[in-house]
Amino acid sequence: MHLSRRTTILGLSSGMLVACAGGHNASVLAEPEDGRDAGVAFDSFDSAFGDLVDVDVTPRLLSTGHQWAEGPAWDALRQRLYFTDVPQNRAFAWDTKAGISIFLDPSGVSREQAGGMREPGANGLLIGQSGELLICNHGKRAVEAMDMESGTRRVLASSYSGKKFNSPNDLIEASDGKIYFTDPPYGLEGLNTSPMKELEFNGVYRLDTDGAVSLLVDDMTFPNGVILSPDERSLYVAQSDPDAPLIRRFDVPASASDRVGGGEIWFDAKPFMHADGGLPDGMAVATTGHLFLAGPGGVLVIDPQGQCLGRIGTGRATANCAFGEDGRTLFITAADRLVAVRTKALGLGRF
């Protein structure tokens, strides 16, 4: 039987694994004390690593007490970061003035609506070009958009070819408004064996501005993080499979098409697997095209040719990362915590 993502990723004691799978009251949110060590170490594999990550600035520990922190998204208008705790079924907000607070509870669906769901909470988040918060909602098995003033949510997509999605996980929006997202089975009890699973595959999709959904990839075992290159000609998809932990790169056609081209293995994470656990997960990209891959033992920094230059070590399996503040802060969701690392590279996004 294939292990669940979190069981595989964490590699923790059985007691901690039970806690990670528990209800949303199982952990206690905590504001870290001033000066508390973020537990981050830097491992340089190439001198170019120092040109991208500012190793001389002390990383910040911003929040602790989470079960599995995920989906960081920077809100440039409000100068605030949002992130999720998937098993807790909550989303949180952080800013320099107010610190940490609960943003959405539940983030996905209520317990009463969560029958058959292993994780009913939201996962990946993104502030869209419209200013709405884009949400990968496990519990609704849908991609949503939330108005930031009213809190009203609307479903953008919930099915393909008449069949419900598994549990949308991560997403990215192109400059033309198209949304690319992954749909592994992590939200479903039993994962691929769930009786609620209607699709035979775990897909990667494109959601067009007219609401049309196109299947792009159907041959990845556990597609997870997704990101576009700065020129939007390449789509990178992480696969959180312990037997094939990798990133595939796809060519994005200039004209509308139901399928992306290519699909080469762009980066193999096996040589970089770590005792702290973790598999290829969420990603962020710099304006230079350098990829910041959350997963094995922290965040791997990879150049545009697919060479790993170093690791931002968090000491634990790491789910995701996103640039924020002035574009040179990398926010990292690492198991039970949110940390911030200063970079010399400028992140791609709105700041």
Give a written overview of the molecule.
Residues 1-28 have low confidence and may be disordered. It is globular and about 50 Å long. The strands form seven sheets. It has a five-stranded antiparallel sheet with strand order 1-24-23-22-21, with no helix packed on it. A four-stranded antiparallel sheet has the order 2-27-26-25, with no helix packed on it. The chain starts with a helix and ends in a 9-residue tail after the last strand. The protein has two helices and 27 strands. The protein has 351 residues and is mostly beta strands. It has helices at residues 5-10, 14-20; strands at residues 41-44, 60-63, 69-75, 80-85, 90-95, 99-104, 122-127, 133-137, 142-146, 153-157, 159-160, 163-164, 171-173, 179-183, 203-207, 213-217, 223-228, 234-239, 246-251, 261-268, 283-285, 291-295, 298-302, 308-313, 320-324, 329-334, 337-342. Strand 22 and strand 23 (298-302) form a beta hairpin.
Describe this protein with a few key phrases.
4-stranded antiparallel sheet; 351 residues; disordered N terminus; mainly beta; 27 strands; 5-stranded antiparallel sheet; 39% strand
Q: What is the number of strand segments? A: 27
How much helicity do the residues have? under 10%
Sheet/helix structural class: mainly beta
Question: Which percent range describes the beta-strand content?
Answer: 35-45%
Spatial gap, N to C terminus: 44 Å
Could you give a short account of the major beta sheet?
Answer: 5 strands, antiparallel
Q: Spans with pLDDT under 50 lasting ≥5 residues?
A: 1-28
